[in-house]
Hints:
Layout: E1 13-15, E2 28-29, H1 36-40, H2 62-69, E3 72-75, E4 80-85, E5 90-95, E6 102-104, E7 121-123, E8 128-130, E9 135-140, E10 150-152, E11 155-157, E12 168-172, E13 177-181, E14 186-194, H3 195-198, H4 209-221, H5 228-236
Antiparallel strand pairs: 1-8, 2-3, 3-14, 4-5, 4-13, 6-7, 7-12, 9-11, 9-14, 10-12
Amino acid sequence: MLNILQKEPRVMRFLCRPEDQGVIAPPVPAKSALPDWFRKLPAIDKNHLSTGNNGLTAKRCMPFLDAMAAGWILPIAATVRLEIKDGGRSVEAGWEFDRVMVSNHGAHQVAGNPREPSPPCKFHNYWSIRTPPGWSCLFLPPLNRPGQPFECVAGIVDTDTYAASIHFPFFATAPDGLYVIEKGTPLVQVIPFRRVDAAVTAEIRAESRREAVERETIYRNTIAGEGWYRKVARAAR
């Protein structure tokens, strides 16, 4: 009798201290944390539907949606108040929680960065992340979800070997004022990837005839996004 070998499923683990379970906000799949404005957006806006406009919205744009739905969202563990003062030169934070939620980096570490005069700060995260051997994680500001008074800095961590908690540097981006960042607010989007898949070389050249035909075929099969009327109007000039 032959034994059929089954591949062990790839599992990404988010781990917290036992006493934090049920207390800090948990990670969630990015596809379950789509912003309200996007959920309410119709796939076709009938108010703009006409012979010259197909009425399609971003709800029908798969690259836009796939980016938002990729990976996981790591939220802020507890509610934090950020006060931005002096034209962004000063950022103070407060919270009612028994762990540090925000700390500061030395401004000299990023002297000359485009976010000056806003000082570099850091959100503390109490989830450790573990991925299978050969897998790393890309951490970046949640894609296509603008509107927060801060923006975390993107980075990559080899989470198959680094098992400690990962904190997230950020810059305050809002005008002076007091901002409340509620528990569960998305901080970063976590996209796991296999390092061997990322190690590819690039070929830079003009396309072949076969590649040109393939490109044009794909383009014509997805041209609905531009609207038939505008395509005809351009061709008629």
